[in-house]
């Protein structure tokens, strides 16, 4: 678990911050999947269905998940500030995880793609969705 003693404003520990962000991301992503799949118990859902059915269910639900939480137009339509912040956190964490993985693997092509998106995000300033385009344009392939 998290070593909370390591999180301190006077002396930041980046490994502890990374751990906190990853745990938060896992919890939010699991909750979002529960909503998309319509199941409160994902482990029970996994036990009740075959591996092939779960794979098909995930494939069909992935577009719904992405549209609901990662598509700029739909995020703007979410009904509360916390829902919008959750969607933005998911988007930012996906980029962070992708960037971390690319750095660890030394994947220069993936680094280039992620840095393009980060550059657009940082240049947009207060405009959260400056980088608009088709859904296909917003996907990152590494």
Structural class: mainly alpha
Helices, by number, come to 6
Name the helix and strand elements from N-terminus to C-terminus, one letter apiece: HHHHHH
Kindly report the average pLDDT value.
Answer: 77
Distance between the termini: 30 Å
Helical content class:
55-70%
The dominant shape is globular
Residue runs with pLDDT of under 50 for 5 or more positions? 130-136
Largest sheet: none
Task: Provide a descriptive summary of the structure in words.
- By secondary structure, the chain is mainly α.
- 68% of the residues lie in helices and 0% in strands.
- It has 6 helices and no strands.
- It has helices spanning 14-37, 42-48, 51-69, 72-77, 81-105, 108-123.
- Helix 1 (14-37) packs across helix 5 and helix 5 packs antiparallel against helix 6 (108-123).
- It is globular.
- The two termini are 30 Å apart.
Short key terms for the protein model shown above:
single chain; 142 residues; mainly alpha; 6 helices; 68% helix
Report a brief summary of the structure.
The chain is built from 6 helices and no strands.
Which secondary structure elements does this structure contain, and how are they paired or packed?
Elements: H1 14-37, H2 42-48, H3 51-69, H4 72-77, H5 81-105, H6 108-123
